[in-house]
Amino acid sequence: MIIGACGQLGSELTTALGEKFGADQILATDLRHPDTEWDGIQFEILNALDRKGMEASIRTFKPTQIYLLAAMLSAKGEENPQLAWQLNMESLLHVLELAVEYKIPKVYWPSSIAAFGPCTPKIDTAQDTIMDPGTIYGISKLAGERWCAYYFNRYGLDVRSLRYPGLISHRTLPGGGTTDYAVDIFYKALESKRFISFLDKDTRLPMMYMDDAVRATIELMDAPSDHITVRSSYNLSGIDFTPEELANQIQKHIPDFEISYKPDFRQKIADSWPAKIKDTPAREDWGWKPNYSLEKMVTEMLSQLSLKLGISV
């Protein structure tokens, strides 16, 4: 059962889970209908804040795994912090409570690098370190990590989590995060060959190509329970780059592409986050290893988006 299946991560993870387990074994839910049909996958409209509706779906579908992906991201969350806290926290507590009550074998909930903050060491950020998030999104993620660990320690609930870096996908548009520039830049490069970045040119952030993120999620959920040593949320590392470095890679394919910089309120958010993540426990516990470099990701994004938009590179 996937809650928030139509988002940037959810739409691709739902497809991958359908391929892994069979479409008839998947229940996808969201506030809105998906933009494209999932072949054979059952879909229901569900508000993640509707505990009774969630319980009814669980009682009917009887899932063995629940993936809670519904959330309000960093930039959107700063526009409406009370609603972001309500959505991000209440939906998680509903899932944790119902998972215990209905004895759901596994639960997945995503955290984020937003759970770190300005006092967190920026380079090779360790699994266990200072965490002082300054956004409501990050605050909710840090609180959620502690709730997940609490439900494991008190009730034995097998809940697992990853601290995602910024996610980059050619299939779906981003949903209001500070790392969104790294998706939008590809559209602008192909459509107008000009891009205005809302982050400064040397703002380095951890990122990950969506294929790696989906694979990491499934590999974590497949890992034997006794291999899971982190019950808050695992650090997860893929690649890291600045807007200038990303633009330079794009210019290797589109030489006349131009980028300019006009930092806005999201710059302060990005400045509070790590630049490079160290994910030793994920590598040691369940064998995590990313497949995509910056060069490989840029080539794949431009190739796929040029087909999608009907624009030749």
Keywords:
3-stranded parallel sheet; 11 helices; 14 strands; 313 residues; alpha/beta; single chain; 6-stranded parallel sheet
Summarize the biggest pleated sheet: 6 strands, parallel
Q: What Rg do the Cα atoms give? A: 19 Å
In whole angstroms, the N-to-C terminal distance is: 39 Å
Poorly predicted runs: none
The best one-word shape is globular
- Biggest sheet strand order reads 3-2-1-4-5-7
What is the overall number of helices? 11
Could you spell the SSE succession in H and E letters? EHEEHEHHEEHEEEHEEHEEHEHHH
SS strand fraction: 5-15%
Mean model confidence by pLDDT? 96
- Let me know the number of strands: 14
The helix fraction, in percent, is 40-55%
Report the structural category.
alpha/beta
What oligomerization state is this entry in?
Answer: single chain
List the helices and strands and how they pair.
Elements: E1 2-3, H1 8-21, E2 27-30, E3 42-45, H2 51-61, E4 65-68, H3 74-79, H4 81-101, E5 106-108, E6 111-112, H5 136-155, E7 159-160, E8 162-164, E9 166-168, H6 181-191, E10 194-197, E11 205-209, H7 210-222, E12 234-235, E13 239-241, H8 243-251, E14 258-261, H9 266-271, H10 280-286, H11 294-309
Parallel strand pairs: 1-2, 1-4, 2-3, 4-5, 5-7, 6-8, 8-12, 9-11, 10-14
Antiparallel strand pairs: 11-13
